[in-house]
Design a protein that fits this description.
alpha/beta; 9 helices; disordered N terminus
Length: about 240
């Protein structure tokens, strides 16, 4: 159960920036390989790596941690082609991150990415993130396919139960909510097993508590989960 004062007004769905510091990244066996690879003081193997993991596994967060540690430039994939001349210009950053790089497959971004890889080869580092290995992106440019397929692919696995539990506790704590361990035990077997789903679920539970001016309890959480059953008709996990 929680103890807090409830505001008179209904909560607003205000956007918030996710905490992307190293202290905010929860290490676990499911991400140990990737953490070790990006923490290696020798840098990325051959200066090029593809960080792979399913949606919500923490790859964007870990890429932010690496970027801050080495002072890398965070390049939005949406503007990559337009920004390429600046990335190739004298004095441009020699350490670059492109999140969700698989979306470049089948577009003119493939050639742009190949140019950047060649530009940084031997003198810089490039970290890409994607949900699947590069061989499964559907790349059309043979030279790019060859280069990326040969790159290191540190991977994040689906979060295990211990990591999900720790993430749930942290997400509630970030919202100034100290919840009973029984609530975490109740949620774990009933929720989608991803970090993204954990964030969405905690936000919905908090919103419901504020809206109804009720404490966060197993009963309230069960009501939120019941909304999912009403929407898709799936039976609740036992």
């Amino acid at each position: 159960m929680t103890d807090r004062k409830f505001p008179e007004q209904l909560p607003l769905a205000l956007p918030s920036d996710a905490a992307m510091g190293r202290e905010d990244f929860l290490e676990a066996p499911s991400n140990a390989q990737a953490v070790a690879a990006l923490d290696d003081p020798r840098g990325l193997p051959a200066g090029l790596s593809v960080l792979v993991g399913p949606t919500g596994s923490g790859k964007t967060h870990l890429a932010h941690v690496w970027a801050r540690r080495v002072g890398a430039h965070w390049q939005p994939v949406q503007t990559f082609r337009a920004d390429l001349p600046a990335l190739l210009a004298p004095g441009a950053p020699l350490k670059v991150v492109i999140d969700d790089a698989a979306t470049l497959a089948g577009t003119g971004g493939e050639e742009a990415l190949f140019h950047l890889i060649n530009h940084l080869r031997g003198r810089g580092e490039l970290l890409l993130t994607a949900p699947v290995p590069a061989r499964d992106w559907g790349l059309a440019l043979p030279d790019l396919y060859s280069r990326l397929s040969a790159a290191a692919h540190p991977a994040l696995a689906e979060p295990d139960e211990a990591l999900l539990a720790a993430v749930l506790v942290k997400l509630f704590t970030d919202r100034q909510l100290q919840v009973d361990p029984g609530l975490i035990d109740f949620l774990l077997p009933r929720m989608e097993r991803s970090l993204a789903a954990a964030g969405e679920l905690v936000a919905r539970i908090d919103h419901r508590a504020l809206q109804l001016k009720r404490p966060v309890t197993v009963r309230l959480a069960s009501e939120v989960l019941a909304e999912d059953l009403d929407n898709d008709g799936r039976p609740e996990a036992s």
